[in-house]
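Exercise 7.
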Amino acid sequence: SELKADPEVALAAVAQNGYAFGYASRGLRSDPQVAFKAVALNGTALQHMSESLQADANDVLLQVTKHDGPEGHAAPYLLPPGEPFDQEQFRDAALKALARKWKVPGWR
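Solution. The predicted structure, written as tokens, is:
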């Protein structure tokens, strides 16, 4: 439906619940600008973006958390997907790295 393709509606829903991104249109879930805003609102949205965007986001998370796991191994293997986006110590670094990768305006 049109509501599923409206980024404002999708992002308002994601602000309440990250799983709502799974109900957004494929176009929105594949759009890096929308996906970035979704994961900034709620890390759980990571699980519902397109596979290529998910792969990018996971690469970023591995870089950001690589020294945080046991014996210096990457932490995401221990965390639910997207959780570092919701954790204060990783959030800014993860979002900044993802914004650079996806060329999101207004993020440095």
